[in-house]
Design a protein that fits this description.
Elements (H helix, E strand, L loop, with lengths): L1 E6 L2 E6 L6 H18 L4 H20 L11 H14 L2 H20 L26 H9 L6 H16 L3 H5 L6 E2 L4 E5 L5 E5 L2 H14 L12 E2 L2 E2 L2 H14 L7 H14 L4 H8 L4 H8 L3 H12 L6
Helix pairs in contact: 1-2, 2-4, 3-4, 6-8, 6-10
Length: 318
């Protein structure tokens, strides 16, 4: 494409590079960003979350009648988008979405698509610290009692629940286990955690027995040859399928608000309550930052403080 450029009475032809329509350009950049994330070996779930955040921003811009040309996206646009997220979702969700866009705009700058990010220096939404309640022992026993039978589903669900209780695994880590990830000699699970970092997570005797019983029942399954550890009626289970086990069994036990991540908080609380080493907890949980330890330790922190005071009771020793 060319256009005439005038200098006095003289006209010269200047070549103007073609640029895709805004919507097509947006899609091409989204694809390029995803390829960049894949090349950086980002986990599939991370890539999916990032692209979902980008899609939410696009939907907001279209709703507001704003341009999809990335050169026209302003900080005011992103401010409005974040405010809309906070009106409909939890602050933690808004923060995750915003941080994904920080990564996206930084990539656009590195690619030469932008001179600078429109949200450079913009702080993420504040996420108030809300301790997650831990699951009490009596409730854990009630959960396990719902799958104490001998059916295939009972064997599987007992193993799932005991793994969550005994190891504090993330849902994605538990659902992603393969049969070969169980090391019976060392009594550990080979887990691929966040950032695709592997670690070995020990399990106790009762969890080992539950896994052994499940695997014996699993041998009769039509999909027994699958590498995936957890099998549903239709074959290998997804994260959502494993989460539904927890939801269903919690309902049968008459418990509300029980989800897979609460087991992780409960594991951290019980570990610290028993005097477990913080460094060991970080290793077992796959945390590289002490800020994560602080976040999870906040669950039932007041309860641990009261118990510690009862043990130490300086006033009673005088």
């Amino acid at each position: 494409m060319s256009e005439l450029e005038y200098h006095g009475n003289m006209a010269t032809e200047r070549i103007v590079p073609l640029r895709r329509p805004a919507a097509a350009q947006w899609e091409a950049l989204a694809q390029g960003w995803d390829l960049s994330l894949a090349a950086a070996n980002k986990a599939p779930r991370t890539r999916q979350s990032y692209l979902e955040s980008l899609q939410r921003l696009r939907e907001y811009l279209e709703w507001r009648g704003r341009s999809l040309d990335v050169r026209n996206v302003t900080r005011r646009d992103v401010d409005g988008w974040v405010a809309d997220l906070l009106a409909r979702w939890a602050p933690a969700t808004a923060s995750v979405r915003f941080r994904a866009m920080q990564s996206y705009f930084k990539w656009l700058v590195n690619e030469g698509e932008l001179e600078r990010s429109p949200i450079e220096g913009m702080p993420p939404p504040h996420v108030p610290e809300v301790p997650v309640p831990v699951i009490q022992f009596d409730d854990l026993r009630r959960l396990l009692a719902t799958c104490s039978g001998r059916t295939y589903e009972d064997r599987r669900d007992q193993a799932v629940l005991r793994c969550l209780i005994d190891t504090g695994l993330r849902l994605s880590e538990l659902a992603g286990l393969k049969v070969s990830d169980i090391d019976w000699d060392l009594r550990v699970l080979g887990v691929l955690g966040k950032g695709r970092r592997p670690r070995a997570v020990p399990f106790g005797n009762k969890t080992g027995l539950a896994l052994n019983r499940y695997l014996r029942a699993r041998d009769e399954h039509s999909a027994a040859g699958s590498e995936t550890l957890w099998l549903g009626h239709a074959g290998p289970m997804t994260d959502r399928g494993v989460a539904k086990i927890v939801t269903r069994r919690a309902g049968e036990a008459g418990l509300t608000g029980v989800h897979p991540h609460r087991f992780r908080h409960t594991f951290a609380h019980e570990w610290l309550s028993a005097g477990g080493n913080e460094g060991d907890l970080m290793q077992l949980s796959g945390w590289r930052s002490r800020s994560m330890l602080t976040r999870y330790a906040s669950s039932a922190a007041a309860e641990r403080a009261r118990e510690a005071h009862q043990r130490l009771a300086l006033g009673d020793r005088l």
